[in-house]
Amino acid sequence: MLWTAGVLLGVAVLPLVMWHGRLYYAEGGTSPDGPGMLMVAMLMTSPMWFGMWMAASFAYLFRYRGGTPLAAGAGATLLSLVLSVLACLFSIGFGWLAFARVEFWRITRLPFVFHLLGCAIYWQYLRAAAVARGMR
Question: Residues 72, 131: contact at Cβ < 8 Å?
Fold first, then answer.
């Protein structure tokens, strides 16, 4: 289930970039090629950023057996402790992006906020997976 959620969060960037292009023109943007160039740049770099997203998920989900509660602690091994700290930092970063870098009070920005909050929650599930992998 966590692999599927990770893939869906990574693929959800495509419709968000398309939505951003529509918002650009709806809010008075005048550049004829701005949103198109953003879309092409996103598509051209997608193997790199999507690969990094899935590699990060792999680091947490390798040998994960499943069924760990989200309230699991920090981990018993050094690796699970390091992965837990990194996951918490990533969750804080995505939460900061959602509420400090996006105009979350505007209804048109809600898809971006929901995606960023989904990423923050996903990193907490990855943290729980790392903790469970380190338990005996």
Answer: yes
Report the predicted TM-score, pTM, of the whole model to 2 decimal places.
0.89
- Left, alpha or beta for 67 (phi > 0: left; psi -120 to 50: alpha)? left
Write out 41-81 in H/E/C secondary structure.
HHHHHHHHHHHHHHHHHHHHHCCCCCCCCCCCCCCCCHHHH
Confidence (pLDDT) at 5 = 94
Confidence band of 100 (pLDDT split at 50, 70, 90): very high
Contact 130, 60 (CB under 8 A): yes
Angle of CA points 113, 118, 123, to nearest 5°: 130
